[in-house]
Amino acid sequence: MKKCIIIGKANTGKSLFMINFAEYLGLTTITLNILRKKEPTLRKTYTIKDARQYLSHHAPFKTLNIQYVTVEIPAVKRSKTIQLIDSGGLTEEIHEQYSIRKSMADTLFHLKRANIILHFVDPSSVFKRDISTPGQIDFNIASYGSNRGNYAIIANKMDLPESQAGLKEIKRLFPNNLIIPVSALKKTGFEEVKAFVSNAI
């Protein structure tokens, strides 16, 4: 089964995208598979509403374990099942908390094993000094993803007014990459993401 990882800095909207994109693809409930080292995979089933409440949060580092949902993506001949993987938020520096350092290490481990990379950035934070402001880690992911292929930058939070100017700057910073503007909150841009993933599988 192909693996599609959602990766990016903390607070870029990765978990909310996973939930709402799964709903967009037709799921009414989400069975979340939570990967734990040296322990069996933990499976939890949520309604979409409950998933938004429990899994998505404005505070950074809500997601500490690699977790995925299984979804069907329309392809050329028939639909294909993939793992849509939500990962822990990344930072520019080594974090003081062990659980967050471990989460980032797990994220990079699964990045190397993913078939498709959706790299989340936050255009609304481009001109701020925020935890989600694009930085060197984003350039590193972009370089790695460009060499690997099946890579796209997902410019999330396009529902925010400051994101329009931020998107122009992101296009300047990453001139050679496919950039898909989305709003995970308003569920816009999902058709373009679906088309990209469909072509990649």
Helix and strand arrangement:
Layout: E1 2-8, H1 14-24, E2 29-34, E3 42-47, H2 48-55, E4 67-73, E5 80-86, H3 98-111, E6 116-121, H4 136-148, E7 151-155, H5 163-173, E8 179-181, H6 190-200
Parallel strand pairs: 1-5, 1-6, 6-7, 7-8
Antiparallel strand pairs: 2-3, 2-4, 4-5
Helix pairs in contact: 1-2
Describe this structure in words.
With 201 residues, the protein is an alpha/beta fold. The chain has a single domain, classed as Rossmann fold. It has helices at residues 14-24, 48-55, 98-111, 136-148, 163-173, 190-200, and strands at residues 2-8, 29-34, 42-47, 67-73, 80-86, 116-121, 151-155, 179-181. Strands 3-2-4-5-1-6-7-8 form an 8-stranded mixed sheet, sandwiched between helices. Helix 1 packs antiparallel against helix 2 (48-55). The longest helix is centred in the middle third of the chain and has 14 residues, at 98-111. The chain is globular, with a radius of gyration of 16 Å. The termini are close together. The mean pLDDT is 88.
